[in-house]
Amino acid sequence: MARPSKTSAIDYTVAHELTHGLLARATCPDGMPFVLVRDADKKGLRLRITQAGGKHWQFETRLRSGKLFTKALGEWPTISIDEAKAEAHRLRGLTKQGQDPRVLERQQQEEKAAKLAAETAQAITVGDIWPRYLQEGKPKRKDAWKPGYRASLDVMSTPGGVPKKRGQGLTRPGPLFPLLALKLADVTEDALQIWFEREAVAGKHQAARALMMFRGFMRWCAGRPEYRHLIDRDAGKAPAILENLPSNTHRTDAIEAAQLPGWWKSVEELSNRTASVYLRAMLLTGARREELAGLTWAHVDFQWRKLTIANKVEQTRAIPLTPYLAYLLATLPKVNEFVFASASKKGRISDTRSSHTKALLSANIEGLTIHGLRRSFSLLGEAAGAPAGAIAQVMGHKPSATAEGYRPRSIDALRPFLEQIESYILERAGVTFDASILPAKLRVVAG
């Protein structure tokens, strides 16, 4: 085909050998919304020119199905003539093979997106997911974390590096903190074994507890579709780790009958009056350490002689306020809302181990823990002849933990049994107390 003169009018009804000069002088005639300059070399390739002067490449052909296929290829001269021809050649080749370029393009985009998602997932670290785990993760059949366990998760994963509240220097990172930098896909048996051995040097029991917490995180990840393929939930069960775990024997420490007088006298003589009453209240109620520490004056009813305690099993439980315990509580100053108040940030007693240790040294008793006082209440209650169900209800045990079949008792029904236990403990401790003192007449010492 003869190339037209550079000055002659362009005939848009026929195909042309496309050149830069031709396309540069091509314009849309007046009265038409657009015009097409077709390529004589590549069938289906054309340049669409609008009244506004826009010039854009198009490719058009029919598929084997008979449907019209049109694809925009970009703006000229950003997309050159050679580039447009090459793309037109590729598209025509696909359509001749019976393929729809649009379907292929969607597949390619999906594959690219999947690859990108996989690469992104592979880069996810434990630290990226940890905040979500703290917010959404929770034990089975529970509505939320227990406050104490949730606080432990924070402590275990803290980065450290802040001034110590007690002593000199900075705090060290929590045992779980090094794991936060690991990619989720890199949490393997070998990685956990190396981490555990390093943390066990500082404290094997602390490292074991951190491992149990992290295994909970791994189970949670394994239950999430978006993380399931990245985590090996059994990585924390590597034989090399399990063989080095400290023995998980349950404590059985409790006060022996012969030790009770010495323990009571030593606790009574503690200079910290609040700790002294707190420790004896632990023995007289069998309450858990944090349950009793969080007791507020609003939940001490001297008139109707009862205590309302925050419970581990239910939200709260009410137990009778026995005569001697009422007397002890009434001797405490009312400093703030808490019965066992302190000058700490929490405003209440939090750790009485040092006071208890002093009392144990004075009484020459070894191996008795704070929780051992709760265990002692149960054993002394049995020795006093109280029913197992009544003891369990006072202690806040689950119904299934009772030996007699669980039959919840009212406060008044529980009262004689708890007073029976209190009298038995006081008698064995060598304490003389006039139970005729009416608790309703007792008053809290003004702070």
Strand and helix layout:
Elements: H1 20-25, E1 34-38, E2 45-50, E3 55-62, E4 68-75, H2 81-96, H3 101-122, H4 126-136, H5 147-156, H6 189-202, H7 204-222, H8 225-228, H9 239-242, H10 260-268, H11 273-285, H12 289-293, E5 300-301, E6 306-310, E7 316-320, H13 323-330, E8 333-334, H14 353-363, H15 370-384, H16 388-395, H17 411-429, E9 445-446
Parallel strand pairs: 8-9
Antiparallel strand pairs: 1-2, 2-3, 3-4, 5-6, 6-7
Key descriptive features of the protein:
447 residues; alpha+beta; Double Stranded RNA Binding Domain; hpI Integrase, Chain A
Record the strand order, biggest sheet.
1-2-3-4
The CATH architecture of the largest domain is: Orthogonal Bundle
Topology as H/E string?
Answer: HEEEEHHHHHHHHHHHEEEHEHHHHE
Mean pLDDT: 85
Structural class per helix/strand content? Answer: alpha+beta
Distance between the termini: 110 Å
**Mind summarizing the main beta sheet?**
4 strands, antiparallel
Total of DSSP H or I helical runs spanning 4+ residues: 17
What CATH calls the topology of the largest domain is hpI Integrase, Chain A
User: How many domains in all?
Assistant: 3
CATH class of the largest domain: Mainly Alpha
Helix content: 40-55%
Strand content range: 5-15%
Give unreliable regions as ranges.
Answer: none
